[in-house]
Structures are given as structure tokens and as C-alpha cells.
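Subject: design request, 205 residues
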């Protein structure tokens, strides 16, 4: 590891740091989405049971017991149950605008890493080649060609490292962005069902 860092120079250090940041973001987001998915399924089932019996304060308590983007929206909808259907949706949309950044947390950083990692690798290759040809120029025409080949091979390490970081970062960025879109769509469907359920109670509170 230290030999690779030494050959790649400071650019390799930056690439390795980006790989660590990307790995932390990927693991954190995957665990986050896995947790809220399981919690939401259980929460929605309990919530429907409470609402069917007009236990609205119990439904609010269920939402507060384990706050997730979905439960936060449900709580807002229940708290605005006295308002019209349009007003309920407007209140929920305002709350949703606050929850979306939570879902997208650090995902844009992952996308940035996916884009700049190969560029850093290319930068390392260019600077490494400049250094290698500089050494060859100093050695003169009778210099050892093996010295040039060695310098170029070391320079290419940063390109390989940049691609190794960029490819999985790009894959997981697309996957996580897709997960966010699916969650938002599921939230919209669940909220619509909640609004219909609340207004179907004919305001019997």
C-alpha cells in the first residue's frame, strides 16, 4: 500500500481519500434505506389500524415513536385532519420538501467523487509522464529506456486507481438516486391513501 502511494504521489493520496469517503457514504446510505424500509412497513400497518378505529392521537404517537421521512409526512397529515383535502396535501408537500434533502444526504457528494476520481487519475498520469520524460531528458539520448518505461508504468497507477474508485461510485450513485426516487413515489402514494382515509372518516373525531 505504501509503495503504491509513494509511486502515485500526492494525487494517489487524494484518490485514496476519495475512496474512503465514497465507501462511508455508500455504507451509511444503504443502512439508512434498509432501516427506514423495514420501519415504514410496520409503521404503516400500525397506523392504518389506529386510523380505522379513529384513534388519531395513538396514530400520531406511532409516527413519533420512530421518525422516518414517511412517518413525518403521515404525522403532518393527521395533525391537519380538520382541514380540507387540498390544505392537507399542501401541508404534506411542505413537509416533504424538508424530508427530501434527508433522503438525498451526501448522494451528490458521491456523484462528485465518481466524476472527479478519474480526472485526478488522469492528472496523476500526466504529471507522472512529465516527470518520467524529464528524467529521460536529463539522462540524455543514451539514457536507459527501461527508466522511461518504469516511470510511465508508475504514472498509469493513478489512472487505474481513479477508475477503480469511479466505477463503483458511479454504480452506487445511480442505485441510491433510484432508491430515493422510488421512496418519494411510495411516499406520494401513501400520502394520497392517508388523505382519502382521513376525509373518508367524515371528520368524526
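Subject: RE: design request

Done. Sequence follows.
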Amino acid at each position: 500500500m505504501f509503495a503504491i502511494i509513494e509511486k502515485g504521489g500526492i494525487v494517489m493520496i487524494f484518490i485514496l481519500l476519495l475512496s474512503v469517503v465514497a465507501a462511508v457514504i455508500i455504507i451509511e446510505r444503504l443502512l439508512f434505506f434498509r432501516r427506514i424500509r423495514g420501519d415504514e412497513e410496520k409503521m404503516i400497518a400500525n397506523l392504518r389500524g389506529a386510523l380505522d378505529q379513529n384513534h388519531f392521537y395513538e396514530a400520531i404517537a406511532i409516527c413519533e415513536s420512530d421518525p422516518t421521512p414517511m412517518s413525518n409526512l403521515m404525522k403532518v397529515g393527521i395533525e391537519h385532519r380538520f382541514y380540507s383535502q387540498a390544505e392537507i396535501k399542501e401541508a404534506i408537500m411542505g413537509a416533504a420538501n424538508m424530508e427530501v434533502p434527508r433522503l438525498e444526504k451526501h448522494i451528490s457528494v458521491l456523484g462528485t467523487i465518481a466524476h472527479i476520481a478519474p480526472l485526478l487519475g488522469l492528472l496523476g498520469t500526466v504529471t507522472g509522464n512529465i516527470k518520467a520524460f524529464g528524467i529521460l531528458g536529463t539522462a540524455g539520448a543514451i539514457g536507459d529506456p527501461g527508466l522511461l518505461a518504469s516511470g510511465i508504468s508508475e504514472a498509469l497507477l493513478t489512472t487505474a486507481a481513479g477508475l477503480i474508485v469511479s466505477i463503483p461510485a458511479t454504480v452506487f450513485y445511480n442505485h441510491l438516486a433510484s432508491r430515493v426516487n422510488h421512496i418519494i413515489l411510495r411516499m406520494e402514494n401513501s400520502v394520497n391513501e392517508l388523505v382519502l382515509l382521513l376525509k373518508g372518516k367524515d371528520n368524526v373525531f
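The two ends are 66 Å apart (CA to CA).
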